[in-house]
Design the sequence.
């Protein structure tokens, strides 16, 4: 059952964990400044401690208290917040987002979520919340309330139902450090949209400065086969576009990337429950939001890069 915001604030204030809806995926939230609460998140998720968490704040003013934003970070915040963009910048306040939450780094990841219920809870609590995806580490992210409760409900003192997640993949992560803007994780704010605001992104450090990118991710129990042209015996095909397999399992029958992103983790979970010999996925275009979808699929298929 869904808790009230007041119940959730009480749980957070006592150092407990709360299942929190966001527009990307469901999160497992705690007071970012409470090292014991943050430790409980790593424990519940089975998440390696070298993988830092994102501080979720109510607005750009609260973000400015946590991190040091240069002109380009500010331009990105203005263009995409509230919304599914996480900005990694030098840390300003080392206590508001504790060392464990930052994995001991001198930088901090910050985001203002687009989901009104998430912002309302952060405002009511008054301090930043860390809120990694509410799945156990290495499993697909939950995009519905029921999936979130199934994954980490055992560790949460309260759970807020905010409906199905509209975006369905985790936030885009960019770092703005030493004057360079680098895409660390593709998401629904696309490379093209970022470059329209800050110009060409730095390609040098891509993928190497985000510790969380080193671990296997998003994998269901069944093996996942990507860019599948045909279906093998016992496999379920997650299609994309007209005529690609059973429409019931399609990521998007019309070939729409936003719809495919919103359906991605839910379909992987649903397919997995059928205990197929494998999950095959149709080719997805590489551009725009397709970059994030293909990134998650490659990880689900076991290609860690
Ligand atoms: P998650 O909470 O699972 O959505 O993952 C957060 C992502 O942000 C992971 O890929 C982290 O590695 C990345 N991240 C968080 N903080 C930092 C940081 N200070 N520097 C680089 N990457 C970060
Ligand atoms: Mg995650």
Sequence:
């Amino acid at each position: 059952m869904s808790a009230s915001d007041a119940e959730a604030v009480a749980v957070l204030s006592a150092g407990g964990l709360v299942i929190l809806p966001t527009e990307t995926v469901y999160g497992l939230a705690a007071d970012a400044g409470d090292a014991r609460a943050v430790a409980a998140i790593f424990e519940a998720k089975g998440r390696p401690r070298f993988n830092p968490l994102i501080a979720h704040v109510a607005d750009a003013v609260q973000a400015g208290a946590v991190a040091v934003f240069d002109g380009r970070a500010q331009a990105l915040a203005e263009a995409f917040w509230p919304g599914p963009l996480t900005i990694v910048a030098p840390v300003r306040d080392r206590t508001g987002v504790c060392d464990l939450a930052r994995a001991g780094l001198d930088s901090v990841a910050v985001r203002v979520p687009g989901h009104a219920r998430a912002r309302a809870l952060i405002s009511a609590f008054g301090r930043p919340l860390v809120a990694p995806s509410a799945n156990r580490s290495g499993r697909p992210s939950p995009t519905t309330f029921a999936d979130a409760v199934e994954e980490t409900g055992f560790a949460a003192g309260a759970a807020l139902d905010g409906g199905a997640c509209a975006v369905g993949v985790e936030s885009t992560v960019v770092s703005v450090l030493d004057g360079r803007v680098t895409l660390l994780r593709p998401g629904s704010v696309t490379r093209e949209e970022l470059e329209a605001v800050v110009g060409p992104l730095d390609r040098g450090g891509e993928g190497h400065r985000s510790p969380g990118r080193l671990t296997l991710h998003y994998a269901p129990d069944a093996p996942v086969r990507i860019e599948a042209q045909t279906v093998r015996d016992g496999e379920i095909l997650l299609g994309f576009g007209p005529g690609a397999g059973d429409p019931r399992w399609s990521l998007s029958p019309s070939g729409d990337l936003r719809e495919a992103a919103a359906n991605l983790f839910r379909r992987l979970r649903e397919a997995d429950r059928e205990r197929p010999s494998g999950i095959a996925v149709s080719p997805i275009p590489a551009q725009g939001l397709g970059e994030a979808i293909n990134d998650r699929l490659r990880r689900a298929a076991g290609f860690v890069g």
